Amino acid sequence: MMDERPETELISIPATPRVSTPEIQTPSGQRSPRPAGQKSSTAWTPTSFISPRFLSPIGTPMKKVLINMKGYLEEVGHLTKLNPQDAWLPITESRNGNAHYAAFHNLNAGVGFQALVLPVAFAFLGWSWGILSLTIAYCWQLYTLWILVQLHEAVPGKRYNRYVELAQAAFGERLGVWLALFPTVYLSAGTATALILIGGETMKLFFQVVCGPLCSSNPLTTVEWYLVFTSLCIVLSQLPNLNSIAGLSLVGAITAITYSTMVWVLSVSQQRPPTISYEPLSLPSSSAALFSVMNALGIVAFAFRGHNLVLEIQATMPSTFKNPAHVPMWRGAKVAYFFIAMCLFPVAIGGFWAYGNLMPSGGILNALYAFHSHSIPRGLLALTFLLVVFNCLSSFQIYSMPAFDSFEAGYTSRTNRPCSIWVRSGFRVFYGFVSFFIGVALPFLSSLAGLLGGLTLPVTFAYPCFMWVLIKRPPKYSFNWYFNWILGWLGVAFSLAFSIGGIWSIVNNGLKLKFFKPN
């Protein structure tokens, strides 16, 4: 016997129905839903037609089908638009990332050779200003990291999968490209080139420590070691997409934490040099002292790189209405930056305590080799150098991925088909050897931490604040509005000052800086 109650009572409809909106979907099946609250509850949605009034004249079986359809649409995020090119590119080809992958990638991108030169900045800043500047920079970049994670899906129906895309949405199509393309490409390509130099030089030192007096009379030259390291990078770069290098990022994260800890522990465990001093280095003129301080602050800023990869990392994660991508991304980023702090602060403080203003321009690893190469067991030195090599190999992959993505985006947009294996391999071989030749032509690039920090500082410290104001549009003259505008313009001012300090440091030293200077 059928239920005598009105048919509308058989339908469970929430008192305040959820508003649903369109989104973009890639052929890989991942979606980026529109955040709730953007439209009023009276706006049309793909399930708004499934209402009690609409269902009342329909029989019970049909009602069940439509109700199930409504639940399904609300679960997966509703109507979508296909973007076939996303499924062909390395960054968005795979969308099965998670919080663990986010932690691996962020940690691999956030800790590296730049941490080893932090004690050099302390030699010019001293204890108080060194620790203060490092703490402020860490908190500042953590805030801008949170901004980028939130802006990934800030505009309804779209995911900003790349830093340049978000810059275009905030600043406009042309201005966004001009402002963001150069620093992000320079940061990625410049870091890749510096990694080749550091990796090759570290491989040479590893060979010298392991082989010792038994080395042959004709060892490989430094340029030949660069070539060996570049060849290894090219082999590893054949992994197809960003998610596929999660294992390499895990290796890079573990090796970075390990060698950072080993370097400062070995340094503080040895006897300090007798002439050590903790007073900031004295320079002949006030202008020279000012430029040196600016260069030192640029080194601190360069220690916090990696924001140019935040959106790309988040793009590898699935996103639905109920499970947006920013949740696992922020969870993984918090874990990563906890370990980044555990690496950077001990290296900076422990290195300056161990060597003071005697710190060589190459950083703490150079100081460890110069002062304690005969007192530390060869096995520990060799292991430290080997870990640095592994970390450089892993970091090269994640910092090169945006360049690979750009190459393939240009190819697919012209041919309207995905890259074949041979085309993809050709792009990566070309990129690897171009980076090698740049490194050979500019062998001092690995020492330009201050200049690199100044030129790329807006990517981390300035642009995210401007993007938040322009996209989220907080109330004018509110605290949020003032806070982000002030931080953004401070970041631009610091970028100019640190770049000038970095250029002065290069000119003053006659381009003679080297990351490693074995005696």
UniProtKB/TrEMBL annotation:
GO terms for biological process: amino acid transport. It comes from the Eukaryota. It is found in: Membrane. Keywords: Amino-acid transport, Membrane, Transmembrane, Transmembrane helix, Transport. Its main location: membrane. The keyword Oxidoreductase does not apply. The chain crosses the membrane at residues 107-129, 135-155, 175-198, 246-266, 286-304, 335-356, 376-400, 421-442, 448-470, 482-507. GO terms for cellular component: membrane. This is Amino acid transporter transmembrane domain-containing protein. It comes from Gossypium darwinii (Darwin's cotton).
